[in-house]
Structures are given as structure tokens and as C-alpha cells.
Hints:
Elements: H1 2-19, H2 24-42, H3 51-77
Helix pairs in contact: 2-3
Amino acid sequence: MRFLLGIIAGFFRFWYDFIVGDSWEIAAGVAVSLVACIVLLRHALVPEQHLPLLLAAGLTAVLVGSVVAELRRKLAKG
């Protein structure tokens, strides 16, 4: 039983490290962008053909925000 629990824990540790990695902000931003697009699609708030553009804009904003935040951290350290 202990062996099985170790395998399960290792499996989830691997996927957490693979998805989140060093920056949980990027993983959270991608998740928020996807959920926002799903909500927009389910409630028909925007035309379906605009969703890829909105998703791309959201992911670009996440990337730019992450890079800016990291740059600020590095500049603050000296």
C-alpha cells in the first residue's frame, strides 16, 4: 500500500512541476484565460470566431505580465 501511495504522490508531483514549473502565475493566467473563453462561449457573449483572438490576447497579456514582473524582481535585487 505504501508503494502505491508513493507512486500516486510522485505522479501528482511530476504533473504539478510540469504544469506549474517555476512560475505559478503563468499557469494561473493560462487557466483564467481558458475559463474566461469558456464562459464567453457558453453564454454567447461574443461571436465564436472571435474566441481564438481573445484567447491569444489573454495569453499574450499573461506572458507580457510575467516577463515584466520578473524584470522588476531582478532590477529590485540589484
